[in-house]
Amino acid sequence: MDTTEINPPESPKKLDANEVVEIMKRAVKRELNRKRALGQYAVICENGEVKKIQF
Questions:
Q1: Span 27-32, mean pLDDT?
Q2: Could you give the C-alpha distances from 20 to 17, 24, 27, 35, in angstroms and in order?
Q3: How far is CA 11 from CA 7, 8, 22, 26, in A?
Q4: Is the pLDDT of residue 26 over 90?
Q5: Which end of the chain is more exposed for a tag (fewer CB within 10 A), N or C?
Q6: CA distances in angstroms from 4 to 1, 9, 10, 11, listed in the order given
Q7: Are 44 and 50 in contact (CB under 8 A)?
Q8: For residue 31, which of 18, 20, 42, 45 has the smallest C-alpha distance?
Q9: 18 with 9: CB under 8 angstroms?
Q10: CA nearest 28: which of 17, 42, 48, 14?
Q11: What element of type H or E holds 42?
Q12: Is the torsion defined by CA of 19, 20, 21, 23 positive or negative?
């Protein structure tokens, strides 16, 4: 019988604040590009006020 060592899964990597911000920026950019490709628009608000309508 072949016995191979099974390693437990690694714990998730701890992210610092800068990495989290970069991940969020990429996610927002990807979503805006998707909406643009579908002919949809996105309304961007800050503190409840419309700042930009992205087509």
A1: 92
A2: 5, 6, 11, 23
A3: 12, 9, 21, 24
A4: yes
A5: N
A6: 10, 15, 18, 21
A7: yes
A8: 42
A9: no
A10: 42
A11: strand 42-46
A12: positive
Q: How many residues can be counted in the chain?
A: 55
Query: Contact 41/55 with Cβ under 8 angstroms?
Result: yes
- Measured CA to CA in angstroms, residue 37 lies from 25, 28, 32, 40, 45 at distances of 18, 14, 9, 8, 21
Q: What are 46's strand-pairing partners? A: 49
Confidence of residue 2 (pLDDT cuts 50, 70, 90): low
pLDDT band, very low/low/confident/very high, at 20 (cuts 50, 70, 90) = very high
DSSP state of 40: -
Q: Per residue in 36-52, pLDDT tens?
A: 899 998 888 899 899 88
